Amino acid sequence: MPLYFLDLRLFLWYNIYIKIRRKTMAKSSSEVQLLELKDMISQLNTTIKMLNETINRQQKENDNLKAELAWFRQKMFGASSERRIDNFEGQLSLFDEMDEFDKPIELIEPEIIEIQKHTRKKKPSLEEQFKDIPTRQVLADTLTAKDKICPECGSEMLAIGTEKIRSEVVYTPPKLERIEYLAVTYACPKCKETEEPQFIKDNGKPALIPHSYVSESLLSYILYRKYGMYIPLYRQEKDFLQQAAPIGRTSMANWIIQSSQMYIQPM
Questions:
Q1: 248 falls in which pLDDT band (50, 70, 90)?
Q2: Cα–Cα distance between 240 and 175 in angstroms, integer?
Q3: Residue 48 — φ and ψ, nearest 5°?
Q4: Helix (H) or strand (E) holding 251
């Protein structure tokens, strides 16, 4: 076989191989692009789904806020007997619990709660706590002569009785003393037989700290010993016990705090 025939055959085979190779590479490149496009489409679909869920959630929140705003407007500006009926189908009402307050009392079943009975130690009275220290009574005397004039007839009112209004423990160095303040009630002698008898009560000066038995002198003594003599409250508690006065450190601390809030901070 001549040599040029071999060269021709090789040349033809080479061309065929190149064409087949090109087709194969083109096919592989197309497949890669197709896979990339499919992956991109999948990612876009996922993003679209998430955005749709976000839009739906925000739309529901918006609808709920509109319903709540309409309910409050109805309560503030509408008739109390009207009821909103434009609830969405399948949507739970946000205001079922609020509507319970609009129902008649007899329609609401009372909740019965059983409480286990227990005994609590009775707190001792001031008389029991300070029974071992001297006690004296002081009549309230803060009304002026003008205050004791009957507003109906102008006569001077006379004392007709007393009433215990409060107690406080007073520190009189070097002893403690409990003082009971008695409110004095005055009545008009001329009006007492009429249909409108006139009375007036002298309640005296108010307590240093409301509902407390501490006096100015006792609190001053406690403050001086704590901040002037550096005696802690627990030691002062022991000192008071030796004088038959059970004044606890917690009570003293509360008096210091309350008095500072009432009399020092406003300044």
A1: very high
A2: 10
A3: -60, -40
A4: helix 249-259
Mean pLDDT of 181-189: 93
Asked if 16 and 23 count as a contact pair (C-beta separation under 8 A), the reply is no
* DSSP 3-state of 188: coil
For the chain, the structural domain boundaries read 1-79+91-106, 126-264
- At 172, the pLDDT band (50, 70, 90 cuts) reads confident
Provide the pLDDT for residue 108: 44
| Range with lowest mean pLDDT among 33-47, 134-148, 179-193 | 33-47
189 CB contacts (<8 Å, ≥6 apart)? 155, 157, 158
Residue 171 and residue 208: Cα distance in Å, rounded?
Answer: 14
Q: Are 209 and 262 in contact (CB under 8 A)?
A: yes
Name the region of 204 (left: φ>0; alpha: ψ -120 to 50; beta: rest).
left
pLDDT at 26: 56
Kindly state the DSSP code that residue 156 receives in the 8-state scheme: B
**Predicted confidence (pLDDT) at residue 77 exceeds the cutoff of 90:** no
Longest dimension (CA), the chain: 163
Residue with tokens 């679209």: 48
Give me the residue label for tokens 């022991």.
238
Residue type, 62: N
158 is written with which tokens?
Answer: 């006379």
- For 12-71, the three-class secondary structure string (H helix, E strand, C coil) is HHHHHHHHHHHHHHHHHHHHHHHHHHHHHHHHHHHHHHHHHHHHHHHHHHHHHHHHHHHH
CA 222 to CA 228: how far, in whole Å?
10
